[in-house]
Model the fold of this input.
Amino acid sequence: MVATYHLQDVLVVETLTESEYSNSIPGQYLDIVLARRTKAYFQASRELDQFLAMEHARLHQGVTAAAGMGSLYENLLEQIQGEADRRQCRDWLQARVTVRKAYVSHLRRCRHATWAREHATSCPNRFKGSLLKKHVELACIPLNLHLQTMHVAPQPSNLPPSNLYPHRISQLHDVCLYDTTTVGAFAAHVYEFKQGGVFSLRQEASKCSISGGSQSSSLFPTTWQYLSQVERRRCDLEWTVHTRLDVCVPQALAALATALTATLRRLVHQPLQFERLIQLGFVFHVESLLSTYGAELGMLEDMMEAMQTVGTFRILLVPHADNASDTQGQVVESVDLYTNVDDAVAGHRRHDHAKSDDT
Done:
């Protein structure tokens, strides 16, 4: 979309384009998240198996000991007191495995849908409108992601209005470029906001940790901490936080990639400004029109936590070997996500799950 404005002696040509990273960045992020959540599913399965094995051993030992020790009343009383807690723990562990298994299957469908949009036969479908904000399989794709570029220059006297397009105005002298990335809130609309956003969920999980006295993120049945209802609640909240961030973070990363690449294209021919970017870093400044009422407060919480997570990422600029000497070529060859710096420097992923196709 192109629009032209004449403001006295100033010419403004505005372009609004869809981001080329709406699908590819969430797709790569899903590659990584899928491996992590699969690992969590396997861990939950092992913990359930270990718990059931220990229960079987306990019952066998209990029958043997009851035959020769203590009164029948004492044995029954002890059994009644612990049986309810152990039954609740077993049911929770079984449900936990079921939830994680279903979520891994869900991530696979999301990954397939995301890459299918990017690799569409006719042309990539890179725009996700507001009507699709609760689409389950497209939840990780940002809403209404656009790049707005304004070319501002003095009004030329020898250029007809019909020729005032970005590629023409960019050839004029004293042209200034202003890039703005517009996008919907980085929020998990698909999960709604009845419990608030990520911030509220983390606060509640933190209170459970304080009251339960647990600081471990990986619990095993040998500690018997799962017998605590508070501990089970904390684990459920942490899982909910992870699943919400799995939706919010790729939305933020896609917007970041869009804004960063637009800046690189603008500064690549300005050595001084480009050097400042390399030395000082890239400022990803985000403003929101959301209020602090109702569901919008939950959106703000999701967005805030997603931005904090994105702040932990590092940006590594690597010259492309094929285009290192081609100054007329494409400024940004590709934007890729890696789980460690070594893989990024080498330009390949050693983990099998991180592939940009769905075979």
About this structure: The longest helix spans residues 72-118. The radius of gyration is 27 Å. The CA atoms of residues 208 and 253 lie 30 Å apart. Confidence is low (pLDDT under 50) at residues 65-74, 351-359.
